[in-house]
Amino acid sequence: MVTIANRKKQLGNSPNISVVFSTTLALFVIGLFGLLMLHANQLASLVRENIEIQIFLDRNITENEQIKIQKTLATKDYVLLKNGQPRVSFISKEEAAQKFIKETGEDFIQLLGENPLRDAFVIIIRPEFYETEKLEEIKADIESLGGVFEVAYIESLIDSVNDNLAKISLVLMGFATLLVIVVIILINNTIRLALFSQRFLIRSMQLVGATSGFIRKPFLARFTFQGILSGILASVLLFLLLQYANRVITDLADLQEPEKMYMLFGFLIFLGGFLGLVSAYRSIKKYLKMSLDELF
């Protein structure tokens, strides 16, 4: 006669390889889409960092006034910091003229007899301030400074970038939501099918007096472990794919933030274990409540 202890050892002996494979594949797809979103967000930030706001100064401004304006701009909360330094740069009218002549091949100074350009500061603002209303507030704030002649930026370009990024974000979020739902259903069904072959064993344990907690415990432990293992395998596959992509695609590594990628890998491991636990609990609860006729 088989004892309860021997029955317990058999509990949870289900198609382990198929469960781990299916769960790993599902988590890999989620992770791949997550990497796509991380790269898209970083690319959007880089695009915005290349949009400049130009601050033209009065012609008779003194060097001390220039320094004062630069220090004031550096303290503004809307100016982007890179490596702890504010993105504020000074371009003299001589530098601007040489750049224009180099790009166009036309020496307008000789034609006009003077340099009509102005000294200017160029700033890069933080991504959260790239909205039409906030840009107008920034423009008004800077133009109120003494020695500032005009603040200019390509409004149509910024509006176009914001609109396109908003549309892309909406599409990505929609796909992400749909993908998560599909993956949850897939993992849940995979575990349910794995437990289907164990339904008679569960009923046998009930008939010999085993409690629900006694029956449920090995299943929950096994499928939680399999979910965590699947998350680890999916993360390893994604990491290897990233290493290959970095060698093949030039400058792709510049779009990657290691901290966020490791957070994504951790999320996949957590999600695998959580879905394994929840799916196993729901399926076992269902089989524990079934009558003998419903098991066939």
In angstroms, what separates the terminal alpha carbons? 24 Å
Percent in strands:
5-15%
The largest sheet, given as strand count, sense and whether it forms a barrel, is: 4 strands, antiparallel
User: In which order are the strands of the major sheet placed?
Assistant: 4-5-1-6
How many beta-strand segments? 6
Mean pLDDT: 80
Which stretches are low in confidence, meaning pLDDT under 50 for 5 or more residues running? 1-14
Please state the CA-atom Rg, rounded to the nearest Å.
Answer: 31 Å
Topology order in helix (H) and strand (E) letters: HHEHEEEHHEHEHHHH
Percent helix, as a range, is: 55-70%
Structure class? alpha+beta
Count of runs of 4 or more consecutive helical residues: 10
Question: What sort of overall outline do the alpha carbons produce when their principal axes are compared?
Answer: elongated
Describe the structure.
With 296 residues, this protein is α+β, with helices and mostly antiparallel strands. Helices cover 68% and strands 7% of the residues. It has ten helices and six strands. The chain has helices at residues 4-10, 16-49, 63-74, 93-104, 108-112, 132-143, 155-196, 199-207, 212-248, 258-289, and strands at 53-57, 81-82, 85-86, 88-91, 120-123, 148-152. A four-stranded antiparallel beta sheet has the order 4-5-1-6. Helix 2 (16-49) packs antiparallel against helix 10 (258-289) and helix 9 (212-248) packs antiparallel against helix 10. The longest helix is centred in the middle third of the chain and has 42 residues, at 155-196. The two termini are 24 Å apart. The model is unreliable at 1-14 (pLDDT under 50).
